[in-house]
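Protocol step 6 of 9: fold each sequence in the batch and record its structure tokens directly after the sequence line. For illustration, a two-sequence batch is reproduced in full.

Sequence one:
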Amino acid sequence: MRLVLPRLYVILDAALLKIPAKECAKSLVDAGVRLIQYRNKRASGRELFETSCDLVEYLNPAGVQFIVNDRADVAALAGARGVHVGQDDLGVEQARVVMGDRKWVGVSTHNAGQFRSALETSADYVAIGPIFATGSKESPDPVVGVGFVRETRTMTDSPIVAIGGITLERAAEVIDAGADSVAIISDILRAENVGKRARQYSDLLERRDSVQ
């Protein structure tokens, strides 16, 4: 059965959080978010594990899918729904060994070659981007544009997550181009009211789907 992802995929990037991760997660859940990833590039393994456990403890009973960035070992030990790996992390199949067949493994891709390679793995979903210019990474890959969403959509029926510089004004356009889900970082985490901004995304994407 094909995996169906929520339209909105929020990434809690520790570098941008103004409040504790769990407090932010509660605001997101109250706003209707059902898919959350935690990313902390600077944390020690212990710190990442402890924060992930706190998030799992809250998010799992709430019915929210929780993903750990980079670290399959931490994701598995914490009881997360899955792990998301990049091009420089463990490969999809190595992460799969750690996570098992019942958990999700997502992978980031930044060009057509990487996307095609990802389709040959057991990845449950493939992320593409940056769709637009982004400030959430120190050394971002080249912008691929909405056209790349349309191009990759023709290559697979597997879930595609679009990421990178997506704003409220652009989200529907990206979904219309073929993405199953939009991953948002800065436009939500840097908002004055995180929950309110997330609710705007949820409402927008729900309206978009209701008229299709």
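Sequence two, same batch, same settings:
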Amino acid sequence: MSILKTDELKKYYGTGENQVRALDGVSFQVEKGEFVSVVGTSGSGKSTLLHMLGGLDRPTSGMVSIDGQDLSELKDDALCIFRRRKIGFVFQNYNLVPSLNVYENIVLPVQLDGRVPDEAFLKTIVDTLGISEKLNSLPNNLSGGQQQRVAIARALVSKPAIILADEPTGNLDSRTSQDVLGLLKISSNKFAQTIVMITHDEEIAQLADRIVRIEDGKILARE
């Protein structure tokens, strides 16, 4: 079952000779439970693609469907709710709220949606990620690797249809990067979670089930 589909996805900036084709007809799909890496150099279009997949920006043309919902059919307010419920994000800069402790950061998306966190599921997540002893700590008292684990827990706790990870190890040293990516892989398997990870790092990309390469806004190959 395909959780994510794109069809002839395009994102153009400017017009005429100054036009930039950040995405130029991207079509691919991701099956439920897959861990997919999208690999490309700087300027290849991979970050633009992630923004389109996450409903953070609107394409010039083409279609993005997540869990059977065409994102173009949703108005801004409905799209915001859909993102909160169906898409988990893991960013390079963690994006944790500094005034909230680890527990509060993890459950924030669920509470913003007016729901009560599944405490048993949350405990399984934090135990798996090795941060159960840090729930009362503030983000600035954590290492980079620990902060990224919190970000992964926050993405998982709402049980989204898909997690989008944008260079999730970009601010970590190589050893910590391997640890965090290993935990992301374990989370994918243990919770049957679908993950699409954007990266420029070939070694990190190899941890995924499948690699999709993008260059000049076009999909080059699938491995």
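Proceed to step 7 once all outputs are recorded. Observation for sequence two: The first strand starts at residue 2 and ends at 13.
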